[in-house]
Known about the structure:
Three copies of one chain form a homotrimer. By secondary structure, chain A is an alpha/beta fold. Chain A folds into three domains: 20-168 and 231-397, Glycosidases (TIM Barrel), CATH 3.20.20; 406-607, Rossmann fold (3-Layer(aba) Sandwich), CATH 3.40.50.880; 615-676, Golgi alpha-mannosidase II (Immunoglobulin-like). Chain A contains 18 helices and 28 strands. The longest helix of chain A is centred in the middle third of the chain and has 29 residues, at 222-250. Mean pLDDT of chain A is 96; it is low at 1-7. Chains in contact: A-B, A-C, B-C. Chains A, B, C: Belongs to the glycosyl hydrolase 42 family. Chains A, B, C: Residues 404-609 form the Beta-galactosidase trimerisation domain. Chains A, B, C: Residues 27-393 form the Glycoside hydrolase family 42 N-terminal domain.
Amino acid sequence: MTGSDGSGGTPTLAALTDEVGLLYGADWNPEQWHPDVWREDVALMRAAGVNLVTVGVFSWASLEPRPGRFELDWLDRVVDLAHDHGVLVDLATPTASPPPWLGVLWPSARAVTADGVRMSHGSRNHFCPSSPHYRERALAVTRVLAERYGAHPGVRMWHVGNEYGQVCWCEHCAHEYRAWLRARHGSLDELNRAWGTAFWSQRYDEWGQVIPPRAAPYLVNPTQALDHRRFASDQLLALYLEQRDVVREHAPGVPVTTNLMGFHHPTDYRRWAPHLDVVADDVYGDPADPSDVVRVALTHDLARGLAGGAPWLVMEQAAGAVNWRPHNVPKTSAQLRLDSLRAVARGADGSCFFQWRASTAGAERYHSALVPHAGPDTALHRAVVAHGAELARLRRVVGTRVTARVALVFDWPSWWAAEEPASPSQRLRALPQVLAYYRPLWEDGVAVDVVGPDADLDAYDLVVAPQLHLVEDADVAGLRRVVERGGVLLLGPFSGVVDRDAHVRTGRFPVPFADLVGGSGEEWVPLPDAGVDLRSDLLGDVRVHDWAERVRVDDGEAVAAVVGGDLDGCAAVVRRRHPGGGQGWYVGALLPPDALAGVVRACLDAAGVAGPAGVRAAADVEVVRRGDVTFCLNAADRPRTVHLTGTADGWHDLLTGADVAGDVPLAPHGVLALIERTP
Amino acid sequence: MTGSDGSGGTPTLAALTDEVGLLYGADWNPEQWHPDVWREDVALMRAAGVNLVTVGVFSWASLEPRPGRFELDWLDRVVDLAHDHGVLVDLATPTASPPPWLGVLWPSARAVTADGVRMSHGSRNHFCPSSPHYRERALAVTRVLAERYGAHPGVRMWHVGNEYGQVCWCEHCAHEYRAWLRARHGSLDELNRAWGTAFWSQRYDEWGQVIPPRAAPYLVNPTQALDHRRFASDQLLALYLEQRDVVREHAPGVPVTTNLMGFHHPTDYRRWAPHLDVVADDVYGDPADPSDVVRVALTHDLARGLAGGAPWLVMEQAAGAVNWRPHNVPKTSAQLRLDSLRAVARGADGSCFFQWRASTAGAERYHSALVPHAGPDTALHRAVVAHGAELARLRRVVGTRVTARVALVFDWPSWWAAEEPASPSQRLRALPQVLAYYRPLWEDGVAVDVVGPDADLDAYDLVVAPQLHLVEDADVAGLRRVVERGGVLLLGPFSGVVDRDAHVRTGRFPVPFADLVGGSGEEWVPLPDAGVDLRSDLLGDVRVHDWAERVRVDDGEAVAAVVGGDLDGCAAVVRRRHPGGGQGWYVGALLPPDALAGVVRACLDAAGVAGPAGVRAAADVEVVRRGDVTFCLNAADRPRTVHLTGTADGWHDLLTGADVAGDVPLAPHGVLALIERTP
Amino acid sequence: MTGSDGSGGTPTLAALTDEVGLLYGADWNPEQWHPDVWREDVALMRAAGVNLVTVGVFSWASLEPRPGRFELDWLDRVVDLAHDHGVLVDLATPTASPPPWLGVLWPSARAVTADGVRMSHGSRNHFCPSSPHYRERALAVTRVLAERYGAHPGVRMWHVGNEYGQVCWCEHCAHEYRAWLRARHGSLDELNRAWGTAFWSQRYDEWGQVIPPRAAPYLVNPTQALDHRRFASDQLLALYLEQRDVVREHAPGVPVTTNLMGFHHPTDYRRWAPHLDVVADDVYGDPADPSDVVRVALTHDLARGLAGGAPWLVMEQAAGAVNWRPHNVPKTSAQLRLDSLRAVARGADGSCFFQWRASTAGAERYHSALVPHAGPDTALHRAVVAHGAELARLRRVVGTRVTARVALVFDWPSWWAAEEPASPSQRLRALPQVLAYYRPLWEDGVAVDVVGPDADLDAYDLVVAPQLHLVEDADVAGLRRVVERGGVLLLGPFSGVVDRDAHVRTGRFPVPFADLVGGSGEEWVPLPDAGVDLRSDLLGDVRVHDWAERVRVDDGEAVAAVVGGDLDGCAAVVRRRHPGGGQGWYVGALLPPDALAGVVRACLDAAGVAGPAGVRAAADVEVVRRGDVTFCLNAADRPRTVHLTGTADGWHDLLTGADVAGDVPLAPHGVLALIERTP
Lengths: 679, 679, 679
């Protein structure tokens, strides 16, 4: 399955990949360079196998140097040049970074912090998302571009805005926030109920009194804050949509997207994904942290989940170092390749970079690029060329999918609600929890789809919800059905606590699921530093730190229980086996990694799920099966071995063209892309 | 002695406790709940022995949903319901948290930071204490309540505002600050002298130039800052007083109070206490820190001191966890009881909690309550019920006092002055010093009154002033008289340094007391990290870190002296024995705990003071005698033993009803309340 | 050499020191005290040998208590009193700290932060450097003083402003910034090129759009920021110059200065120094940090470099403790003397202190002074008197110079550019690098001149540029000539990277010097925490942390190379020996101290430079030769020994008057000032 061909239906990535195979490219910002350099650029692109460039992301001031005066000739030349050299163009609306004139003409078009500080130009993304002036001018430049390039044969994708994320607390936004709240809550009475304004004397008597959560002397109303996060994400989505509509009008059939940023806190990408023709993600793992590869893999599975399982695209990654960390360890050439192939293994049909040629000026001049300051005769650029060649050898995976029997539930509003100030403990953090439950699955090579709580879960044998703190009534049934139909549901601590308005559900927790898991709790117990001891036949005896809960066993079993102290006898892990074969598990503690892995593996066993057949990998080796290709990716900077079985005829490595079998060595950060040989 | 009966004279707590014994209760915020829940509430209160509820603290928006439109019917029902069920009502003026409409109608009624950021509603306590609009509306709602409920038989106490603490730097406040300064200093010349404006060219030429210490590029004038702290405290007190006066007019004879917060930095409670009919304190010890019980005990002794020795009231404490720390370890049931009884032992005639029923919404939904989210069938609520029963068994202590022969001097302006920026060292901190000198007294079970420097000290054999950095001329004589009349005076480092305007007293320090202690200094010496060695017959040889002083012995003795280095031979502890038996001690160093305990115990010996007779307690066991009841409180989470002697007939434990003698075991966090058996 | 006599030519320090010898003095702020105290002051000054006082630094409000009303009588008395007692007066323009009335009358005369917070009075230095009102009033008070005291025989130096350093982001400053940018860049097109505004859509279309780098959502344009630093320094210099011109008009021949602050980030003192008649520096080493003496020595060499080798002046230092650190360890009496003599050894012709008499009020009341709160009968003041006497014994050094064959290149714009946010690593810091390369020179007693990259380097055999990140085209030639003429050039990591506009130079780095050093790089490599191993015959095998570079050897030699990992074989230190005897060295790593010392010492050997002859000092003993006096300063707080040879007749210690030879003991923090005995 590969998606549409572009004629009618929803435009997809397949329109491009069917033509050129896996996409390989970069942001190309030629306005920084003399046209002579452009010609060198396209020659180098061809030599490197680059087949896609994103153009114009930051070009507004170059395209419209003063209000209403457009200068597009240079862009004509750039687009034609790429097209003439067989490089597809992903054309951006340049609306992320308005020219200085916008905020000078209309100061209210600049964003304001919760403290009332108005942003200035001089950086990027300083606009207010609710400013009528900004939106009008952004649509105007979008329209000019769409009219000019909508039918250009070289422009094969559109890239609206860039890394949406700005949040503003100004009066424009307050106005829009109120409109959004009216739509959500219907009446002021309902808003007062939802926000719990009876506490702390916050009752609103007129809509005009309602404001974003601005600077206040103490804790802000948590539902006011939660709704503001929802609004802020929706407001940015509205910007995307209105520009997309202009593009689509002039470029029907051409896919439109914007670049997401994985687990990006301000934007609920589940609400965005249905509106993106292509899920495109910016991926910046930290080469200084060897364990960060697990987080990156999880992020890829999220991207694939947002795409509904269809191929997605790495829109940005670094070829070497980034520049925005305090200490920016560069990727090695082996890591450049490893990281790119990890994304392909997990469903990406393209691997693009920021940016093509390293800037000599501006705030990102120390960010690596495919062509370094020292030019093409460099280790980095040689790796770029080599990688282009091997991506061409992976055309077989284009359009194929990863099949998963395990779902990991993740939800932005739940993340937001769980990490409001004034929760029981800041040591219980949503993303680390999600990652902790994901890690054993990654280690075992078990494919995982990251889905929302409202997803159709019927295809999954195991559903893991590590930190579903907020769960809406409407989603409870779907999660319960997992167990009812014989599947396994695993819930992490502090789950099921609040409803859509972040109100605590009264009763014994996890309130909507306590009967499913056979146990129930009455108190969250952030622990003194010494922690507490657990006893468990399954997990062994371990010490738990930071978090436990006062949980009793009802009609389930205690898989692990606290020994000693005030919580003596409380369950730390409780499970109920249901007559129909289903199992409900609840973990009421922050388990140490090995114990948590024991829980996850017991759930895998109960669900009958295991890693890919025929491949037994050493520690640190990530195994992913996509379509009929099994990728083995060595996350370690030392050699590892993979043991292959499972087929009488042995395996074939698409990257090297070699046939392999038995114990196969993997170089540090090395990769295999295997298919089973057929006789 | 028990205080007044409420008919004429100053209203006191006795009016309530004579009727119902020790008070036991909570903040009740029923506006969060359906009236059906109210009826369950009062039934549960009766079952738990709750006899006092604080109502209406955050009800302004419920009582006056729009300006001038009052809706009090619901409160009528609440007050009647409590009254009908025998629960006394402490009715609050809801003025801590104004409704949104106040700050929308009058933006200047919202507080402004030193940086000029104006606070918004959405939290609580966002008002400007000097805003005429706020004050007018606060008095109006107070008047409406006082008129309606002043004579209600169920309303037995009034609770004005809540946790006063907001400070504001706005123009209203600047205006009020100038008025306050005029009253304090009389003339601009005197202000210029007091503030030392000859330095750094700060001389004021007109009153209108004088402002609060707003954002500035470098250190702010310390006396300007000190006077602003004084003003800010007085300004909040003025709010209390004007509301109290309205209440008193309509509810003569009913005690009026507000809830203090122990060693709360912004408010000089010594100036507040004379205006409170009941000293009521909010107490939030940290269950995660086993040593915090000493600080809490000290805080209780402060509350008792503020009450002039009369019974006081714990107005708020947590039953389990709070929600505002980064990591909120809950109290165990044993700690709930232990903490409550500690307050009673140290003079409280009541023990109240925040809040009755756990909120499901709002910023405090994760703060524990007497009725948890999981309902009354929980460990916590069962402990609440049990504790209500045992409080009833302690009626004997109602109205009784703790008798102390040791005074600990503590003063807010001295605290403020000592911790201004640009002092010799931030490692010398006022509260830790006070606590360090208090700890040995706590360990020995020696009763201590925490008093101001202007207190009548004649009743005390030992007066300890650990950190009396600022001392007014008027208070010097009282402190000197301690020694002159044969008592012992112990002064900590950096004491007696500045006068009321925070001007350094010139001469050899401690300037006003150097002759009393028989030694004098010329330089404060924050130490290099290695510290310095002391030699002392009394204390042994110890190493001192962070702070010493260049002190010479005059006509006293060096109890400890520095050995080696640049300070070789300087006194670290100096003492002078006076002919009349008095002793003056000065400690010119930050002594390690054991050495400091040696100093304190030598002073106790010299003063002839010791802990309670007949009780020899193990470490961690706090012993306090109130009236004729000796409380033994085990601060450890493991068993301890108390050895009882001193009476031929043994002892009787009021809590268990058992007779005990000899070695008596104390459970972890356990408590005894003993009286001597009479034959 | 020694400078002018004051009659015509440029006024210099010699006009004073020829008369009174080494200067010794303090800031005298008598407006804080009753005139009776003034008389005690001058008597104590005479007794202590004090011969210079700085008067009036913070006196604006005392001199002009309201706009236009001047009260100078008190200053007449002060100046006359000093003069009558033979104490020279350095008269300040009081413009650093405007009176409250200035900012009240003209709020726009108060500075604004990048976040838009306007400063208030109450501290000091709150003015906006671009405010026309401030500048007009500052000139007015300056003119009044200059007219009144320009010809006063007691006023022998003028001190304009104080510790210039304030930066402001207000509209006045934006206007001035634009004017400055016009002058620098000529056209908006050129500004757009220089700032690289093609990136991130920052192109300016009108001058009015150009602003200082105010609060923005993300990284600010680095050249906008760099130019703003340049502007801010120049703007402060303009204030100095316009006041100086007024002074000079009325006090021709009297030297004018202001007090610098060593490596003070906001002010490019290389641009200031040519306009100062006397280089005067404020020096606040940290007595708590034994290694800080090396930094202080470097700072003195910077001051001497700014003075072009001529004598300079310590304008401020502490006699004991300062008050602005979190923990202010005081100097001992031995350190007071040691620090003062270190400055003299390194070229200072005077040693002054802040301040004469300790304030009792105001923000600096805990800053030490020559007369402590406890009065003159104190250890500190006795040391002051003793030191005055020994300074008189050093008259021989007045006007003499330190001769250096090593230059250390330091540049403010390079510092600014290297530490912009978003560089490869914040662990590579400019000043620590400079200090690291300086330390071995300090240890070996090698004299070093700290110079700018545009200096005439022909006199130096070794030129060390530890961190010349930014180097202008115009300065490249001078640095290259060092090698071309047979000298040694040593470049540290990340050098030669950017041009004057902070644009990265494309090509293999260090781009302008790669051929000189015989190696070239293509990637900066901030290291993972484990670091990398180096192998080196010269330096031994060492482990490098934090920073290496991907450097290859071209036609030079690898002095040290990486072993293992991704950088295996890359050069860490590369050197090229040139036919004419010159050598170019490039260090592409953050070497550990011993290895770096090895590099520096190899460069010293190659250049034929060594420490002072005849003196072999133990570790911690700093040896400096000034004129014909060799100073040995013991930085340790324990005894050390110096071994003297080199003259048959032995040596003579000017401080004690003793003849010494062979092994001479140095007390803790002790000093020798030796001359060779002549037969």
